[in-house]
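Regression test case RT-17, inverse folding.

Input:
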């Protein structure tokens, strides 16, 4: 489901993770 768009959450999922989750991981120390 890479690059799929979820109309329910209105978030783009990449590799099964939402962009928000990915950004949080990148910001994590």
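Golden output:
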């Amino acid at each position: 489901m890479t690059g799929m768009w979820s109309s329910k959450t209105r978030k783009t999922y990449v590799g099964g993770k939402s962009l928000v989750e990915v950004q949080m991981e990148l910001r994590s120390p």
